[in-house]
Specification:
The protein is mostly helical and 96 residues long. Helix content is 43%, strand content 0%.
């Protein structure tokens, strides 16, 4: 965590200084560099981070939680409190 905080502080100090130096090449140069740096970080992460290891126990049945979620529980269509014809049910957004 200390390294992340230090990197954030260094970026806050050096970022505007570097942008000021790049402004000699035009006002768009700092914006292009601001676009390029996260893309370079993404490429570095993609290249150097290892693939995720398989789960220790493995999944049985070959079911994926993303493509085949568990079925939803049955919905009870009855109102949570009885409605009276003389006094309508209050909305949860009615604060009066």
């Amino acid at each position: 965590m200390a390294s992340l905080g230090m990197a954030n502080g260094v970026g806050l100090v050096l970022g505007p200084a570097l942008a000021g130096q790049l402004a000699w090449f035009g006002l768009e140069a700092p914006l292009y560099l601001t676009t390029l740096l996260p893309l370079l970080g993404l490429v570095a992460l993609w290249k150097y981070l290892p693939d995720a290891p398989p789960p220790a126990g493995g999944r049985r049945g070959g079911r994926s939680l993303l493509t085949d979620p568990a079925p939803a529980p049955p919905h009870d269509s009855r109102p949570s409190r009885p409605c009276s014809p003389y006094r309508p049910a209050r909305s949860p957004w009615d604060f009066s």
